[in-house]
Structure formats: structure tokens, C-alpha cells
Amino acid sequence: MSDTPIDWEHVDRASTALEVFLLEKVDFPSAMGLQARLQNQVAQRQDRHGIVLVCEHPPTISIGREGSFADVLVDQEELVARQMEIRWLNRGGGTFCHVPGQVAVYVMVPLDRLKLGLADYRSRLEQTLVATASDLDVDAERAKHAHGATCRCGQFAFIGAGVRDWVTHGGMYVNVSVPQEPLELVRWTNGTLRVTSLAAQRTRPTGMATVRESLIRNLAESLGYDNYHLYTGHPLLHRSTRKVYVYA
Fold first, then answer.
1. Could you tell me if 183 and 175 are in contact, meaning their C-beta atoms sit under 8 angstroms apart?
2. pTM across the whole model
3. What's the pLDDT score for residue 246?
4. Residue 119's domain spans which residues?
């Protein structure tokens, strides 16, 4: 791992490393816009270079290709009162609720150059989630009803990924320290499995920094990257701001 500043004048050099950007809290449109630009950059390269964005989101509901508005379990008036937006995304997975305390990991890697198929890639993401839980002494396994990972208390991590021109987008959402109330605003899966968080499973505070470090390290290993470089922020990120509903 390296935390040295990135040399933006030489980003086109051949690389086999994974670049990871810690963005802290980012609104959904800003994160999606940056992800699209970086996905295009990866697609234009000829090497194994990959990019990962790690962040949290203000309260938002996202609906993927396997979800629908029927998965939203509260009425429009309550969403307005909570100042919670709904975003329709071209990704796999269903309907997810995003709030601070959940870590989002957006992965842009060239599957063809990594010699991975779609099923292989999804399996590597689930492998990452199970290994991260193990680092926290949580016994987890791959989910059956919705792609991700489950523990004794329920499903704590979800995969919402897509591929364009053999470059991935979207990724993983892990509920680290999320109150139960926002988790019940949407129907996350087609099954009856409860949605939970790592902190609820561990019955004690769980640091976001600890989970991020484990996710990044296990993701790099699962995807076959020997080296990853860690940076804070990204010069192409343009944030927007809005008031948000704060969960007690």
C-alpha cells in the first residue's frame, strides 16, 4: 500500500495497481458523476489498472435494475419530510437505503484484462465481504436471496454492480453502524431475511475506518492486485450540498 500523492501528469503510464480514493461523505449525483468519468478512463487503458471510490452518502434511496418503486415502504410525504431523494441507477441489485454509517465501495476494474467473468467478479466481491466480516470476528456467508453477505442477525452487505465495455461500476454497500429505523424504509430483498449492520451483530461500536481498511485490503487481494495506492479525496470530485435528515 502507498499513500504518496498521485502524479497526475503520468496517470497514463502502464500500471497493474489498484488506486483507492477515500472521499468521506459524498452526495449521490457527485459520486455517480465521478464514477462515470473514471470508468471511461479505465476503459481507455490497456493495462490492469483499476480504481476504487470509498465513501458514505447522505440519506438516499437507490433503485437498481432488480428493484422497483414498490420496494419503498414509506409514502412520498415521509420521504419529503426526511429530505430523502430516490435515485434510479443502471446497476444490478434491488432497492437500497443509504445513510451515514454505511460504507459504499465503487469498483472500476477491467474484467477482460483481469481474466474474470461476471459470475467470477460477483463471487470475488462476496469473498471480500465475508473476509472483512471475519476480520471483525463476525461469522458471515454469501447471501442467498440478494447478492452480498449475511450473518446471524441478517444481511449486512449488498452488491449493486454493473459492467460496461468490460469495465465494472457500482460495487458494495456495507451497513457498519446504521440505526435500524432507516433500514426498514425499503424492501432490500425478495426474501424474509432481516437487514442488519455489523455493529448490531457485534453488539458494540464498530469503527468505519477499521471496516474501510479491511474492505480495501481484502478487495485488492480478491481481485488479484498485489499493490494498491491509497489517496484522500479526488481532484475531479465536485460536491453538491443539501440539508439532510439526521438519525438519532
1. yes
2. 0.91
3. 47
4. 8-232
Q: What confidence tens digit (pLDDT) does each residue in 143-164 have?
A: 988 899 999 999 999 999 999 9
Long-range contacts of 215-220 (CB under 8 A, 24+ apart): 215/54, 215/103, 215/105, 215/128, 215/129, 215/132, 215/172, 215/174, 216/20, 216/52, 216/54, 217/1, 218/127, 218/128, 218/131, 218/132, 218/135, 219/18, 219/52, 219/105, 219/107, 219/125, 219/128, 220/18
Radius of gyration (C-alpha) of the chain in whole angstroms: 17
pLDDT band at 105 (very low <50, low <70, confident <90, very high): very high
pLDDT per residue over 27-36, tens digit each?
Answer: 999 999 999 9
Answer whether residue 30 is part of any domain.
yes
Inside any domain, residue 159: yes
The count of structural domains within the chain is 1
Supply the CATH number for residue 189's domain.
3.30.930.10
* 238 within domain boundaries: no
Contact 129, 221 (CB under 8 A): no
- Whether 3 is covered by a domain: the verdict is no
Determine the pLDDT at residue 83: 87
User: Residue 202 corresponds to which cell in the numbers above?
Assistant: 457485534
Average pLDDT rounded to a whole number, residues 9-24? 79
